[in-house]
Amino acid sequence: MPKKKRKFIPFLGPMLQRLAPKIGAKVIMEPEWGVVGQILFKNGNIKYFRDGRMDLNTLGSTEIAVDKDYSTFFMKNLGYNTILGKSFYSPRWHKAIGAKHRTIDDGFTYAEQLEFPVIIKPNSGTQGSHVSLVHNKKEFYKGMKAIFKYDRIALVQSLVVGTDYRIVVLDKKVISAYKRIPLSITGDGKSTIIQLLKAKQKEFIIKGRDTKIKTKDPRIADKLLHQGFTMHSILKQEEKIFLLDNANLSTGGDSVDVTDTMHESVKKLAVKLTKDMGLRLCGVDIMIDGNIEDKLNNYWIIEINAAPGLDHYVTSGAKQEKIVEKLYLEVLKNMGK
What we know:
Blueprint: H1 12-19, E1 26-29, E2 36-40, E3 46-50, E4 53-54, H2 59-66, H3 68-77, E5 85-89, H4 91-97, H5 104-114, E6 118-122, E7 132-134, H6 137-148, E8 153-158, E9 163-170, E10 173-181, E11 184-186, H7 193-207, H8 218-226, E12 240-242, E13 254-257, H9 264-276, E14 281-288, E15 299-305, H10 311-314, H11 318-335
Antiparallel strand pairs: 1-2, 2-3, 3-4, 5-8, 6-7, 6-8, 9-10, 9-14, 10-13, 11-12, 14-15
């Protein structure tokens, strides 16, 4: 049970309550916290959900999907292209399990072997939290120590370059797909970077998007530094820069819907991967060397999500809201069988 009352209500519960009557079902929410619910189907079936996790995927497959290191092992073993990387442990966890050659120092040696810059991320993190592109020893140790305050396992991965996409699959069918663009701003020749970020935050609020841009995120400061800027720099007219290396919508990224234009080869890959990993509902995060409209050639699976978070996506536009409603209506129908 949470220690303090939440300041927000997750979008899934109210959406399911709105959609359930369309199939003769009813959703009952636990009223105090608003994060768990019960779905009563007209055939007598009863299902449950908590936040974005629903009674759809099996427990074992869900647990594997949550663990990036384990899921990468199985995806690679099945023949999918994954990002080269390795896991390393916090001092306390390293000692507790008696691991060998998995300390933070071992992680730095491995990063040197991969060659900087490298990506570091929490093994079980979500929404792009603590994901960093680090260029040197100082940034590596700073980033890893930050991760170990959040997770006992960190991943060190080689940097791959391409276009980032999220593909949502439900029971052998792609429901939605969108390109993910990292947090960015475009200059007007007079505003500072911090002013542009605050203006972008206001735009999110006007659009009803609950994303909060963390202007004091040290990753933003580091990203600016590598580009020769500070928060007080003024960008030229139409000059565009990126402020984070992850493309999650939850950290201020933007999305471009590509559901209707993606190539059939990409759909087949996402559907097959979802099935192979034992999932019915899955968010496949994939980096493609090229465009999703073209036949799939070079790609890397970034990770899979058994409970793809769509709360930020749903507030990015009317079309996206309809896509998400369609997705969860299909989820309800399948859960009731």
